[in-house]
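Can anyone check this?
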Amino acid sequence: MTFIEWLSQEIRIRKWTQAELADRAGVTRGAVSHIFSGTRQPGIDMLKSIAHALHLSTEEVFRAAGVLEPDLERPPSLSEWVHLYMEADEATRDIMMENARFFSERHSNKKNA
């Protein structure tokens, strides 16, 4: 998946437009438009701004952009889970964490059996 495809997916998950991404990242709409059109590669500062806007780690965005090698241990849906968690209310976050702990413990128990 290219960085443009990845970024398109991330804003689609959030139901944002390119303009909303630009506003949330604190960059110009033109700069974001150039990235999506492929006429400009995002620099490190732009990637950091995008990470901040998406509430993702810079590492994750750097990996998606090809600045860092892919982390083959990380499931591809982690960024979606993080986004859903960040958008949830406190009660839903508690339920999500309870479920995550349950499945983590279950996985750990299977490995140790």
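Reply from J.R.: I decoded it. The chain has two domains: 1-72, 75-113.
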